[in-house]
Amino acid sequence: MKERLIVSLDLNDLGKIKELVKGLNGLVEIYKVGSIPFIYFGKEIIEFLKQNQKKVMLDLKFHDIPNTVARACEGAVELGIDFLTLHASGGFSMLEEAVKTTLLSAQTKKLNRPKLLGVTVLTSIDEAYFKDLFGEIKRSVTEQVIFLAQLARSAGLDGVVASPREVEIIRKECGKDLLIVTPGIRPKPSQDDQARTMTPGQAIRAGADYIVVGRPIIKAEDPVTAAKEIIEEMGNGD
Ligand code: C5P
User: Fold this and answer.
1) Which residues form the domain of 71?
2) The domain that contains 74 carries what CATH number?
3) Residue of 165, 194, 211, 212 to mutate, ligand 1, most atoms within 8 A of C-beta
4) Residue spans of beta strands (DSSP E) within the chain
5) Is the pLDDT of residue 15 over 60?
6) Is it the case that residue 238 has pLDDT exceeding 60?
7) Which residues pair with 55 in a beta bridge?
8) How many domains in the chain?
9) Is the CB of 7 under 6 A from ligand 1?
């Protein structure tokens, strides 16, 4: 199960990040670098993770015009990362262009290409907020997630990022080959900003390929024990 756990390094302290990664050695193989560590430490954090033989999910959630996203994808290939995120809501042309450019760039430079993941609807958004955000719309959050997952798949993306609560329906609607990565994981009920959550075991049982866990590990008093408990719970299925 441990190779299906992605730990999110949402910290602005490089010393702490290095300490965490070293402490979790042997337990955690993939780290998510999002906008917080990337804005502070840029390439340095990616180089550090690669030197320590870790896989990297660069979670900058690109959402821009197709040309800008495509050029950013070319740069991401050079970083030697393993997963890259972009917002599926950026539209078919943006997604398709990103897929083409990433493939071509990796082939030309003889580098590994990152797997592209389309973010569907953020796990912090619930049904009530979704209505506030878009006014009178015809789709529910779940319908919008399915729409975006199908869009991502048809544009050639490798997978999607979605809440664990939508994993089962995405599997049903999009088949078994689409990778599903799920944040919004909480080992216990919590009061923070995640709205559509599940436990690690529930998410795996629902069909997630990878789960992303941030605060329950990086803010834990004992991150190693927290990670071990989560990995064990992933295997229990519930
Ligand atoms: O601390 P926590 O476990 O809530 O961290 C979840 C991570 O997953 C954060 O880095 C957040 O940016 C990210 N994420 C998310 N929902 C998405 C996509 C990414 O929470 N749909």
Assistant:
1) 2-236
2) 3.20.20.70
3) 212
4) 5-8, 30-34, 55-62, 83-87, 115-119, 159-161, 179-182, 210-213
5) yes
6) no
7) 30
8) 1
9) no
